[in-house]
Amino acid sequence: MFTITNRMNIITIVKAFYHRQLNPVAALLLTHTTQMLGYGWAGIFRKYLVDSPYMWWPANLVQVSLFRALHEVEIRPKGGLTRLQFFIMVLVSSFSYYIIPNYLFPSITALSFVCWVWKDSVTAQQIGSGLHGLGLGSFALDWSTVAGFLGSPLATPGFAIVNMLVGFVLVVYVALPVAYWTDLYGARKFPIISSHVFDANGKAYNISEILIESTFEFNRAGYDGYSKVNLSVFFVLAYGLSFAGLAATVSHVALFHGRTIWQQTKASFQDKFGDVHTRLMRKNYEPVPQWWFYALLILVIGLSLFACEGFGRQLQLPYWGVILAMVLAFVFTLPVGVITATTNQQAGLNVISEMIIGYMYPGKPLANVAFKTYGTISMSQAITFLSDFKLGHYMKIPPKSMFLVQLVGTVITSLVCFSTAWWLLTTIENICDPSKLPEGSPWTCPGDDVFYNASIIWGVVGPLRMRFRGWWARHNYILSGGLDAGVAFMATLCYFTLQFNGIGGPRWWGLAVDDHCPLAKCPTAAGVRVEGCPVFH
């Protein structure tokens, strides 16, 4: 499993949002080094997060169940299906169905009936919109939407799902409406939910007003004469909760896992810690020498410093910023890894990393996102590598083979993804600019848009399982794997056979990747004028 999306964010926002030139070698080094740093952190913490029997990595159980279904000989139960037959049935069904939300009827990803009934009511659409509002009465008939944000719910422990549900209700259905409709800090001048930044008049923030074109640095005089940066109340809550969640991660791990980690640290020196999987691995295979990780870490640190300090300092991040980002990733890899390995939910360092470098090195948007990339992404990649090591642990794959396959796969994946992204950014006209793209275009870059707005903010300015327990234990993870595989195969097929060749879906109302709640994005404060929105008095 290799995750590369966030490594491309910085390249995308430089070229498509800020419209700046970037040396391709520097960009390639950035892509490779942010991933390779994760190997170093993974090597340091693998005895805690891989060898420990308490770190079970729920998401890996999907892969384990799938591999067992594919390779183990199984007798078909009377009146039932083998796990392989069940997987194939789910795969074919998911594959066949996904052409509907992916190509024929994209609007099925967010069906918001409230908006269709109250077409002229801003408040009703703010309440009912699934993409830009509270989502009451809105739902999706698309597995990629269900699993796209927090991962497969079938692979997440029940206690974690309940925890997230309670938190979601308290934030989205209690705190957010109260803050917005009481006009807290002028919240009604802006959309109720938006990841964009706005000026004092409720319009999209014009970044060119506060940047010096020649040096690409913060223009204080321009800022004072223009406007402060304003956020939607939801974006403010999201940032605040991000800080709270990260602090909760550290305190939770210290209180509930601190003793285990300390005992494991002592036991690891005596070679006494581990479960049956660890004992089998040590008995049959040679472990990966620790110096492999250290050597790779030292090499990548050197390349990271070269990428930022060389090439005319295009990335703006000085050497001490690179080192500080690495320290941040090192400190948080263990606590975040413990949470991920036990709940299948991963806390991110994106907000705290943006804030730290924003205060220490203000007015440098590219330095901010580079720092964020080296801190956040290297830790995230370490978690991914550790998860893969645990999968190899479960499947009894030789550790050295696992290491080498991961390393080669990471290099190839980074190179291919970088080349593809660079090609798209230089060949597709108006990429990432929805206002200039044709309707239904897939090149709107929503994730990169959030990344870009964050760089402005911080960089420029500052019970089912119990009822069917037998079926669940046998088929749950295979169901998740089959749904994911079907979606992936159909998405790939549609892209290369249709979308890549400019063959769009049928022109009709359901083609838009939207919930058709245009007024949900409107402000409701008196006198604020935004194109396409009614003016309140």
Automatic annotation (TrEMBL):
Q: Which UniProt keywords apply?
A: Membrane, Peptide transport, Protein transport, Transmembrane, Transmembrane helix, Transport
Note the PANTHER family from the entry: ISP4 LIKE PROTEIN
**Major subcellular location class:** membrane
Q: Name one GO biological process term.
A: protein transport
Which stretches are transmembrane? 21-42, 82-100, 159-181, 229-250, 291-312, 319-341, 403-425, 478-498
What protein does this entry describe?
A: Oligopeptide transporter 1
The source's domain of life comes to Eukaryota
